[in-house]
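lol ok so funny story. i was supposed to be doing the assay writeup but got distracted and ended up predicting the structure for this chain instead. priorities right. anyway since i did it might as well share w the group, maybe its usefull for someone
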Amino acid sequence: MQVGWMTQPIELIIEEPALGSFVWRLLETDAEGANPKVLRDAFDPSDTYEAALAAGQRALHSEIRRRASGQPQAQSA
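and the output, tada:
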């Protein structure tokens, strides 16, 4: 899949806000990689880093497919 048309990088991060509780977050930055804003994040924490990473990767791929199809961005709560 070619994504050269995307001008705002998306970063997937995994955080551990509480011991043994991992959450993913997609951050969108400007073209220079600065000024990050939360694009999407986990509804519920995962028990392992690996599970949070897998869920975050699915969300990232979903976001890329959504953008490639031209669908509008869903509003965050």
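The mean pLDDT is 85. Residues 10-69 form one domain.
back to the writeup now i swear
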